[in-house]
Amino acid sequence: MQNASLPTNETSSAACGVVTKERGTAGWSIPLGGGTSLMISGHAPGIFRLRVYKPGERENPLVRYGLVAQGLAPAMLDVTEGVHHTLLRLPGGTLSVANETGATELFSADGALLLSTSVLDAGMDRGYRWQARHAVGDRLYGLGDVTRDRVEKTGFRTPIWVSNVKSYVPIPWLMCARGWGVFVNSSWRHAIDCGSRQAQELSIECNGGPLDLYLVAGSGFRSLLEQFTALTGRPCLLPKWAYGLTFVCNDQATAREMLDDCLAFRRDDIPCDLVGLEPGWMSEHYDYGLNKNWHPDRFRYPSWLGGACNPHTFLGAANRLGFKLSLWLCSDYDVTWEEERRCRADGTTPDNATNGDRQAAGFHPDDFEKDEHFGHGAIYADKLTKPGEPWFRHLEKFVDQGVAAFKMDGALQVNEHPDRLYGNGMRDEEAHNLYPSLLNKQMALGFSEHTGRRAMIYSSGGYIGIQRFAATWAGDTGGGQKPLVSMLNHALCGHTNVSCDMEVFSAEGIHFGFLQPWSQVCSWAYWRHPQFLGETLAPIFKFYAKLRYRLHPYLYTAAHEAARTGWPILRPMSLVHPELPEADHCLHQYYLGDDLLAGAFAERIWLPPGDGWIDYWTGVEHPGGQWLDVRVPSGRGGPLFVRSGAMLPQAPDRSHIGTKPADAVIWEIFPPAVGRAAAGRLIEDDGESLEHKTGAFAIMATRCTRTASELHVTLGARHGRYAGMPERRVHTLRIHLSAAPDAVLHNGISVEFTFEDEAGLCLVGLDIEEAREHRIIVKLA
């Protein structure tokens, strides 16, 4: 691709030929032949949809089923039509279209050429081939969980096809830090080539369906992820307790053994919030049907106790211990029937049966003899699905009894169904990728519609939109370094609630397992209970569990940011530092929120430039912009660094998170260098309802500056409101200092403090009204 820029207004006539008209429109099209047209529409800022369309065709199922562009208003295109080219302008970018061929060029807001796309190749028997050229040096990121060997994709080719272990959650999205992204808006099996055959060429080969994709012009990765998740859905905010620890019991556990597991966590002072049951909870192991029941021996639920949450049951007992309960599920249900029903209810699909529909149902005007053997109407090969019954409906009784979460196993959502005809008329080539996102969508919406609460659905499989409905874990692949790379690739597609099965038999695995967006231990066929880890590993497990729970306010604040912007909790180095090529090789480390830098299974760690980095275990500060050999003290499993100037909101030790606000707030402060300023914030809500979506949350912003003789800390007035919000609490400042200060002032009044010499910590406790601003001055020695 030659270096080029968009012509200025003075020369746009020459670029387009003779300008014939200028207008604003929601969509623009040119004929392609064969009764088809290339239709271009847009969303602000800088999102262009290119779609080959034939009159009478139904809308793309990703759009029709609300996985793409749901609630996203179309933008008016500013159109300048010429003899040879047409310019389509949106805030954020411009698309130039060749009037005869449909070839396009994407330009940034400042007129720089980002991509040049090819004429549509109609040489395939079905589907399409599309190509684009990009600039020398462009590095490409995205595609979801299609490889666990790399994050940068230049020279990489992959099928986009949900597969067990190999590709649990492929996402057909690519982006470049120079400010462009491409999203393939298709559920058909397809392949994406990032230059493996031809340098600087991006190509897409799709096995079916018309061309349908989005070109996005942005201003860097943060902007591009915000645009992409505006298009495909922001990451869901899980219930507050879901960011604690999940422990999944052995498959053969009984109700009593499950409760004993809960008691063991409480007895050993190891925090935990969610306990999960594997398929052994069911009366029929791996029950795919709609008539599930508790196992009559292992999980007896007396019928006379009724359907409501009853304190006499094992669920009530777990709840009194502060535990939520999760159930394992498998599904082969045809969820497309429910999607079509929802489309009719929304008015996006006509609700009128044709004569063919009625005849297929057994009503034929020439049926004179009325043979009763034919009176059953349509006969379905699918004996599992009930077309009029949503999948989630049969699970409502378990939710009423107290179940709070569901684990969606890969069976059979990631399996191919080569001979299946789905209820919406699709074959597997088009429906296979779609299925896991629809299944998890219906799980999440079904739970929230039934309860009015946020869902905690966690799945191994997914496709477009999965971040909006479910958390994911890295499937049956353990808790080593490969799952970390899958999480890095998820982050590059705006999916934030990611995890893996914690590898508990090494300090390294425990370290990594707890420093993730959400954490789980899965015993399944094993005995991964922390109580069975032995005298060396059990204390390490307990230490990290308590650390995670102290950091919960920090992680939950990052989860809120992700839910509003798409900026993930766990961030690859390439996402934050795309200007530095060495970041692409940092596959053993990641940012956890804004201010923590974690390494996993690492012998060396790269400290990014621009700030000092403090070893969280030793307190030693290292300058940024260097590789550092990892030296981890005894009892720790890997490196953890904190940015100089960080103000980490934390909570006191507790056995579980639940939904109530923490009784107190701790600010761990790592003062910035002299003359520098730092900031932090705390975001809170009621922890479980959906009210945060309409603004029911509160933010407290903090600031810290340092002079040669003083440290100035500001706890800003809290803004916002939510149900159950405390008016005042104790805020404790834990300030890392080399020596005890001379004095501490709160709003100009001297207050008491303590100093721990060995830890180098100044502790200041303040019982404050949170609606007011509070200024603290620390007089340095």
Overview of this structure, please?
Strands 1-5-6-7-8-9-10-16-15-12 form a 10-stranded antiparallel beta sheet, with no helix packed on it. The longest helix is centred in the middle third of the chain and has 18 residues, at 434-451. Helix 13 packs parallel to helix 14 (534-550). The relative contact order is 0.09. It is of the alpha+beta class and 781 residues long. Helices cover 18% and strands 29% of the residues.
Blueprint of the fold:
Elements: H1 12-16, E1 21-25, E2 27-33, E3 36-43, E4 47-53, H2 61-64, E5 77-81, E6 85-90, E7 93-98, E8 104-108, E9 113-117, E10 128-133, E11 140-144, E12 157-160, E13 170-176, E14 180-184, E15 190-193, E16 201-206, E17 212-217, H3 221-232, E18 245-250, H4 255-267, E19 274-277, H5 314-320, E20 324-329, H6 336-346, H7 355-360, H8 396-401, E21 403-408, H9 428-431, H10 434-451, E22 457-459, H11 466-469, E23 471-473, H12 481-491, E24 498-499, H13 507-514, E25 519-524, H14 534-550, H15 552-565, E26 570-571, H16 573-576, E27 589-592, E28 596-599, E29 604-607, E30 612-615, E31 621-623, E32 626-629, E33 640-643, E34 647-650, E35 664-669, E36 677-684, E37 698-706, E38 710-715, E39 719-720, E40 728-736, E41 743-746, E42 749-750, E43 754-756, E44 761-769, E45 774-779
Parallel strand pairs: 18-19, 18-25, 19-20, 20-21, 21-22, 22-23, 23-24, 35-40
Antiparallel strand pairs: 1-5, 2-3, 3-4, 4-17, 5-6, 6-7, 7-8, 8-9, 9-10, 10-16, 11-13, 12-15, 13-14, 14-17, 15-16, 26-27, 27-28, 28-33, 29-32, 30-31, 30-33, 34-35, 36-37, 37-38, 37-39, 38-45, 40-44, 41-42, 41-45, 43-44
Helix pairs in contact: 13-14
